[in-house]
Design a protein that fits this description.
The structure is a homodimer.
Chain A: H1 5-12, H2 16-23, H3 30-43, H4 49-56, E1 61-66, H5 72-87, E2 91-96, H6 101-113, E3 118-121, H7 128-136, E4 141-144, E5 154-158, H8 160-173, E6 179-183, H9 189-204, E7 214-216, H10 221-232, E8 240-243, H11 246-259, E9 268-272, H12 275-280, E10 286-289, H13 292-307, E11 317-320, E12 323-325
Parallel strand pairs in A: 1-2, 1-3, 3-4, 4-5, 5-11, 6-7, 6-8, 8-9, 9-10
Antiparallel strand pairs in A: 10-12
Chain A binds a DNA duplex (30 and 30 nucleotides) through helix 2 and helix 4.
Chain lengths: ~325, ~325
DNA sequence: TGGCGAAAACGAAACGTTTCGTTATTAAAA
DNA sequence: TTTTAATAACGAAACGTTTCGTTTTCGCCA
């Protein structure tokens, strides 16, 4: 049906080898160049990627694996990753594992069975050993958002500690002394980092931490909702709350709406990730914004450099600065 | 490096053909079955999909093409499509075209160059002829969300007319007489349908339409913002507004917040698509919810049935029911 | 025991490329 | 003109499968 390189060779009178050479950027006499171009146009020749892949052992495809396709933080990163990859001739197979470690393994296998040349992923955290095996097979892996100590691969993430530190600092300088935090699940990298920033800010400003105000959710809407309620039910509730990801911020806002709590008079709130949220919630929500575009692009570029063997160095941790938007949702107790 | 079918053959003492037959579900003596299984396990044999694809001319991959990966309505559908496909041994390559018709073409080409067996897409609307060519090549295409008259392929969409009709009807029976609508871009399928429902409801209830209250946006946040402002600046502003997609609903809410307009006292609002939005906006937002899960699954199943040649019939239009949630954002003028 | 037929196994070609080692062509140098 | 060196083109093998037509095996019945 479709024209093959053989047809192009026949049309031009050249050998298959020459045509192949030209297609792959090799030097060819000017007149042959013209001739081949003509043949390709006339015959509507398209290279057969499967045949090529069979020979080269490369699929020119990267795997992208994220916890959820319904989380705009991740999909927005994916969009940017894809764009860079595409510009460099790579396509991507996108999968989500629905926050399920079992599925994470499966989809990882799946990607490998599709012979992806490299992988960009947001790891769940409980499959370190398995992922390390993949790395050892020689498949470049780049982590996004989360870092696993026992996997030796590049990683791109937001500067969580400072992000969190800055947010808490702003609350403290505005006179807040009882600050609640809704963290992610324990043992997850970002949870630990964001909590670290919270603690450090308290230490630096010599503000005591009430352990009752440090709660752990699951990074999902429902747990944000539940944890906010729990915080408000503490005997002496906090005057401000910091929620450490987008979904939980959603949940927290829902809970606040339901309880008819006034922001910022009854509670100050700083959320995470989604800049649009800031303008939808009323009064406008203060928020820590991660640089999704930069994260995605950085990860893609690192993967590409590994794929081209430009970068053979040992894995690096790349931290990208976040932005803190303080809006109306934060009350100041100072004059 | 990796074991091939040849190695398996050698290990078992059988021929390549026999091993291949077994791998593909053919009958083999029980003892050989056991033997091959052992070999596969010991050698860690994985089939080379490129070699297989070269022979079979099938990649077991579907292309998914959507306007934006940053729109949760689409990504949520993608997630569900992927799940069904994966269960049936198909992987998917997901692309977005960033609402850009040129890019739509490019990415379509890209998917085809990747030799996808079929395509599920949300068409932009301006590349009908081009897509029709793809269909004529014999590549099954399934449209989601939008229907293009001059492309002969299956399509899965929400019952937009009734969705819109029901929303407007609820406003009318609550006593609203001046109802604004923020439509999508002209000439887009969903725009027309949603507008049709608006008109029909007015007709059925004998309410006049003021053309000044019918505005067209671009289905993006910014245009929702702008159009809401424009509606409120009409000399005699509407008492209710229906916004016809998620992004524009976001924009509309932002504008309302900025202008400090009170919902529902000064304006009643019905939005679209995202059920979470309902609970985040205060007072809680009324909303038309599309069945994302069902849409995705239906589309995937249709594609699969085409790929297996189970379904050779002519293209069908599948309409799925939407849900209307009336919350606090709608005021009633009737006691 | 010999012959038969079904079931299982086999051999080899083919899919469309890339690539390596070799040969042909060309232009400049001798 | 002949030689040389560089450049371009070529032929053929190989990548790991599937598949088709053929051969082998084996149990069963006459």
């Amino acid at each position: 049906m479709a024209a093959t390189i053989k047809d192009v060779a026949k049309y031009t009178g050249l050998s298959i080898a020459t045509v192949s050479k030209y297609i792959n950027g090799g030097r060819v006499l000017e007149k042959n160049k013209v001739l081949i171009d003509e043949a390709i146009r006339v015959l509507d020749f398209k290279i057969n990627e499967m045949a090529r892949g069979l020979k080269t052992n490369r699929s020119m495809t990267a795997g992208i694996l994220i916890p959820s396709l319904e989380n705009i933080f991740f999909t927005s990163i994916v969009s940017n990753v894809e764009n860079i990859l595409l510009q460099n001739g790579y396509s991507s197979i996108v999968c989500d594992y629905r926050e399920n470690p079992e599925l994470e393994k499966e989809k990882l296998d799946f990607l490998i069975s599709k012979m992806v040349d490299g992988i960009i992923m947001v790891p769940h955290g409980s499959n370190s050993a398995y992922i390390q095996q993949v790395v050892e097979k020689g498949i470049p892996v780049v982590f996004i958002d989360r870092h696993l100590k026992d996997v030796h691969c590049d990683v791109v993430l937001a500067d969580n500690i400072n992000a969190s530190y800055d947010a808490i600092e702003q609350l403290i300088v505005r006179g807040h002394k009882r600050i609640g935090i809704i963290c992610g699940p324990k043992n997850i990298f970002t949870t630990e980092e964001r909590l670290k920033g919270y603690i450090r800010a308290h230490e630096d400003y010599a503000v005591d931490i009430d352990k009752k105000l440090v709660l752990f959710g699951n990074y999902d809407v429902e747990s944000g909702y539940r944890m906010l309620n729990r915080l408000m039910d503490v005997k002496k509730p906090p005057t401000a709350i910091f929620v450490t990801n987008y979904e939980m911020t959603l949940g927290a806002v829902m809970a606040i709406n339901e309880r008819n709590i006034k922001i910022p008079d009854q509670i100050s709130l700083i959320g995470f990730d989604n800049i649009q949220l800031a303008r939808i919630v009323k009064p406008s929500l203060s928020i820590v914004v991660q640089p999704m575009k930069e994260i995605g692009e950085k990860a893609a570029k690192i993967l590409l450099s590994r794929l081209n063997k430009e970068n053979q160095g040992s894995p690096a941790v790349n931290r990208l600065k976040t932005e803190l938007l303080i809006k109306e949702s934060v009350k100041s107790f100072i004059d």
